């Protein structure tokens, strides 16, 4: 069927290595970019506030880059199945292309839309773009999904190497008439009352060009010391690529191949593998953010929530230096160093005895890189209830972690300097006593599993 091609952008806000965009260009018809803000479809989780901030700026960048090359970006809001079909009708489009999503509700929505469009004689194709290895291609010898990372990643590396990234198009033929579009400002993605995003603006520049620059900076300046210093929050050795991958401003194929070409990166590439594993688990367990993967943890005796403890943790007022520094970094920048994320999460779950889902919800709202797989997956890992989980009895001692990974106090000095003076605040709970309480609760889980 002739007519323009619609490229439905989702978590792939880039022009380079975008298979859906490439397929549309190969069709040799005008191309219309579409982004749908879907907060209504069943099961689709609304974005957190920090994510909404990032999305606004990344869409701004994407729209500008499409226009520079002759294309257009249409913004529409509503249930995706209805909005995409309306856009196809308005544009008299003959084809729709998108890159695949892997969450349960998203897959169901995409499958239904694909069937409906084909019934209307519209060409539809979807592509692999956001993962190196699609979840159904990686199985155990018994044909089941992996539940442990090391054999999962070994199996991935035994598969054909990830494909080479696709080149960025220089020209994009736009339509003679572009369908009506919402104004991005009308979506009110940015905070105004109050405007709390000053720290995010200081820290980040969303968009594909900035993502490309950061990748090159990391490979040039930081990759060589990554293995040695990645766990030191004050060392500045982390890639800071997680939000770029979350929003698809970079593809994992680009990161993979450019890292390999740099001649290093074994440990860094395994971190890409950990990201893949999280999506692998979500694909097979769509309710990852709500339900314990290990069902015996359903018997965990969470005590009645103490709101003052949760509030202190969220605000970085626990009296525990490394935890408070991390939570303040999170609030200011929408980001937290990974080692500190583990420490802060362990403190919430295993010292404050607060359900991991409360922490997952807070990170979902405040992290610029929170996605549907990695955020709940990593919370369950810390809680001991998930795939490849750290045993529940492995409790991070935040004071020992600070001495080991921030021995000179650089990180704490930057984010929680009140902990370095003589009047340093006291912890809101006793670390030893709460550790014992957590282990007692874990014994309850083990007994329930045996009975």
Automatic annotation (TrEMBL):
- The answer, when asked if Lyase is one of the entry's keywords, is yes
Has keyword Transmembrane? no
Q: Enumerate the GO terms in the molecular function aspect.
A: deoxyribodipyrimidine photo-lyase activity
Source organism's superkingdom? Bacteria
Tell me the ranges covered by the Photolyase/cryptochrome alpha/beta domain, including all copies. 3-132
Q: Which UniProt keywords apply?
A: Chromophore, FAD, Flavoprotein, Lyase
Q: Which SUPFAM superfamilies match?
A: Cryptochrome/photolyase FAD-binding domain, Cryptochrome/photolyase, N-terminal domain
| A Pfam family matched in the record | DNA_photolyase
The species is Microbacterium psychrotolerans
PANTHER family in the record, alphabetically? Answer: CRYPTOCHROME (PTHR11455), CRYPTOCHROME CIRCADIAN CLOCK 5 ISOFORM X1 (PTHR11455:SF9)
Q: What is the designated name of this protein?
A: Deoxyribodipyrimidine photo-lyase
Name the EC number(s).
Answer: 4.1.99.3
Instruction: Return the similarity comment.
Output: Belongs to the DNA photolyase family.
**Cofactor field:** FAD
